[in-house]
């Protein structure tokens, strides 16, 4: 298992992109919107060296990112861990008593399969597990 990316909730996506690219010298590698119910998020993928940051901005008031911003404010939303096989990892973690937010299981346009673990297991840190069945890198 390794860290795949850090998700950061932002209120101003263009301003955040500018900070990471113009000030820190990172590279914007992708930008897209996910209109799916329960997601409703604009995403900007930033590559900083070998590390990846996803900047997340809500597209509607019902977006989980909108709820996060309202409750906790802008900042780190989640840490994503890449596993070799998501289904196997979920099974093994369930055997250890971990539970998941089953409604979050999905495949992104990048081919990444993901699910969020219930944050009660990780001291409130939102934890994503993901794999890339068709790719070997982000």
UniProtKB/TrEMBL annotation:
Recorded family membership: Belongs to the methylmalonyl-CoA epimerase family.
Name recorded for this polypeptide: Glyoxalase/bleomycin resistance protein/dioxygenase
CDD domains, alphabetized: MMCE (cd07249)
Source species: Bacillus atrophaeus (strain 1942)
Top-level division of the source organism's lineage: Bacteria
Keyword Transcription: no
Keyword Metal-binding carried by entry: yes
Pfam families reported for this sequence: Glyoxalase_4
